[in-house]
Design brief:
Helix content is about 35%, strand content about 25%. The chain is α+β, with helices and mostly antiparallel strands.
Length: about 325
């Protein structure tokens, strides 16, 4: 773990999205005592915390262990950083002839969000992110307009071809990053593993992309903190949720300049980071949807982003603009702090 990654790890431990709870014997449901097994590990480029509750502590322990194994398996497959993984290989060679069902599913889901957002969500932005990383972190300069224009020629989700278990990129030099959707997908899969292990109450929190199930015992909701974009150690509100997912995209997560006008979220059509929003929080049934939509809405201007979410069942959003204004969809509910 390099110094930058280690510092991000320490920050995530201290200021990650909080799901409140008490370790050990947690609550009563009917006449059964619920025990919580909770563990955190550095995975997916962030701190992943898993909680499982059961009357039998051994069931809770097995569920947590199994969920972490599933996360590790899927990260190896879907991460662009894991050498030998499917996404790494696709980016390196430009094609895959043995793509897993999971990768194909995520790519098809990503294409769906690209289409409904008019291209605001696009997993082929890797050339732009590589350009930002090289210019800002290695060469200590801002990329030129010409450099951005050249990278933009390699960005187009329509040039990802999928046929059965074959995937290829239609332009040499293209690359994909699933950072804006795979984490949510992996969270969902980890929750499904918990359920198969007999857990009815718990959560999986991957650095703010999280999904909760069953309430916090005895019918109580989980309380999920919404980070302040201005101070990651503070929270501006709390969402109460018994079942469902929350994901937040913010310009404070990874940024390339002090003004945060260049950050890890990039407009695939302009080649530059959106500057109207500083934070977008989305609630949905599945984490994969909340994950992708928080990115898509961030790229769209607030009005268009709200319009997109308002047209979807079971999805709500909170947008915080650069001047601090909070705008929400009609049914977004949170407790203001």
């Amino acid at each position: 773990m390099d110094r930058r990654t280690f510092l991000r790890y320490l920050a995530a431990i201290g200021v990650g999205t909080v799901v409140s709870g008490v370790a050990g014997k947690l609550a009563r449901k009917l006449d059964e005592e619920l025990y919580e097994m909770k563990q955190s590990k550095y995975m997916l480029g962030t701190v992943v915390t898993i909680s499982a509750m059961s009357p039998d502590p051994e069931i809770a322990r097995r569920a947590v262990d199994s969920a972490f194994r599933e996360i590790d398996r899927l990260e190896g497959m879907l991460s662009r950083y894991r050498k030998g993984g499917q996404v790494y290989t696709l980016n390196e060679k430009g094609f895959l002839d043995n793509a897993s069902q999971e990768l194909v599913w995520v790519l098809e889901k990503a294409r769906y969000y690209s289409e409904i957002s008019d291209g605001a969500f696009d997993v082929t932005v890797k050339p732009l992110l590589d350009l930002y990383t090289r210019c800002f972190w290695e060469e200590r300069r801002t990329p030129t307009d010409d450099e951005i224009e050249r990278a933009l020629r390699l960005v187009d989700y329509k040039k990802i071809a999928v046929y059965r278990n074959e995937v290829w990129l239609e332009e040499e030099g293209m690359g994909i990053t699933l950072d804006g959707i795979a984490k949510g997908f992996i969270v969902d899969r980890a929750v499904e593993v918990q359920k198969r292990n007999g857990v009815e109450h718990g959560f999986v929190n991957a650095g703010g992309d999280l999904r909760v199930i069953g309430g916090k015992g005895a019918g109580n909701p989980w309380r999920i903190g919404i980070k302040s974009p201005e101070n990651e150690r503070e929270y501006l509100g709390v969402i109460e949720l018994r079942e469902g997912s929350v994901a937040t995209s913010g310009n404070y997560e990874i940024f390339f300049n002090e003004e945060k006008t260049y950050h890890h979220i990039v407009n695939p059509r302009l080649g530059r980071s959106p500057v109207k929003c500083v934070s977008v929080t989305v609630t949905a049934e599945k984490a994969v949807d909340a994950d992708a939509l928080s990115t898509a809405v961030f790229v769209l201007n607030p009005e268009r982003g709200l319009e997109l979410v308002e047209g979807m069942n079971g999805v709500e959003a909170l947008i915080i603009t650069r001047d601090g204004t909070r705008v929400t969809t009609s049914r977004f509910r949170y407790i203001d702090l």
